[in-house]
Task: structure prediction
Amino acid sequence: MSTPEQKSEKPLYQLLSHTLVDIYVGPESTHWILHEKLLCHHSPFFASIFYNKSKKESSSKAFGLPDVDDVPFELFVGWLYSRALRYPDSEADIGPLLELYLLSEKLEIEALGSDVVETVRAWYHNNEAYPGLRRVQYIYANTEEDNQMREMMVGAVARQLTLADKIPVHWEKALRKNGQLAVDIIRSIQEWHLESRSVPDPRDVDMERERGRGDDGKLGFSAIEGASQISTTEGEGYEMVNGNGSKGGSED
Result:
């Protein structure tokens, strides 16, 4: 994130000041009444609104966020007072968490962003799943290079595609259109720091002799991929590891 989290950590009781602020969220202006000191301690964004450069209180105690949805802001308020995030019950809960992550960037709260990344990372790992294309595209469309969530997701996708028998059709189409995503996958693989002896060497003549053939006897990437079919489950936002070790998934 562009701005590190403000100040060292303080216990909650020291941040529950008498002064409250009114935050109006979304197109319906949902009204939240929050403790000013707590809010400004964690968010440089709000500190710049409710305090001037000399750290004196602003005369205005209200602020609107019409472009922020209610769900991620409610998750933010829960985190603000508990410093905890609820573990996702299903992949459907990942979407609001990604919205919360983008909100953390807007509000300049680095600790919240890191907590969201770790929660999303844990869910995918514990469920032997990978981020679906839709999730990755959402993050790429709303973040810049060297972003924590972006790098976690693309690193997971790099592992998925490396271990798969073939590139799923929806991923192949996406990689052809999004050169940056393809480059980032290569970067992620480079971060593994593989030993050269563990990586096949196409310059070795013995490897050429062992080159795979398709069912029709033809050589090449497309022939090999055609011989290995991967199932696709429509409507899912993530990609699971099937019982046979191949990767399933969808464009969502």
Q: What stands out?
A: Strands lie at 20-25, 30-35, 62-65, 129-131, 238-240. Residues 1-6, 229-236, 242-252 have pLDDT under 50 and may be disordered. DSSP finds eleven helices and five strands in the chain.
